Amino acid sequence: MTDRIEKAVELRNTKGYNCAQAVLCAYADLYGLDEKTARKIAEGFGSGMGGMGETCGAVTAAFMLIGLKNGSELPGDKSSRPATYKQIREIADAFKEKAGSVLCRELKGNGGRPVCSCPDCIRTAAELIEKNAGL
Asked: Which pTM value belongs to this model?
């Protein structure tokens, strides 16, 4: 595991960042984002997108990182979208295979025993982003 993966888990465990904030902030500097800005951007994606239990915050942060890496800087340029969407689907499929779901409410176990803990979701998303997106 890289230092960034452990940094992401540490940000959640020691600073109280949600899963999206932890993952995005661990890699933000690679894209010229300071930690404060990354933390603010990712805040609303925690607990399955604003606490709705939808897509896991760690996964949505991985998607954001793919967009930062691949996205075009030119307005109206859609040429990067197919590759970006493909990578996002690959990350989502790999995360689901490893963790059991991409939905926060399912990962947390719907009030029962968690299928995948938040620190493990963070590790999984960060590992996949490093492996599949070349970060």
From this structure: 0.93
> 101-106 long-range CB contacts below 8 Å, 24 or more apart?
101/56, 102/55, 102/56, 102/59, 103/48, 103/53, 103/54, 103/55, 103/56, 104/47, 104/48, 104/49, 104/53, 104/54, 104/55, 104/56, 104/57, 105/48, 105/53, 105/54
**pLDDT at residue 109, rounded to an integer:** 87
Residue 32: count other Cβ atoms within 10 Å of its Cβ.
8
Residue 124 banded pLDDT, cuts 50, 70, 90: very high
Q: According to the model, what pLDDT value does residue 84 have?
A: 94
As a whole number, mean pLDDT of residues 97-125 equals 92
The amino acid at residue 129 is: I
Question: C-alpha distances in angstroms, 99 versus 9, 13, 75?
Answer: 16, 20, 36
- The larger pLDDT score, comparing residue 94 to residue 71, is at 94
DSSP state letters, 91-114: HHHHHHHHHS-SBHHHHTTTTSS-
Residue 68 is given by DSSP the state: H
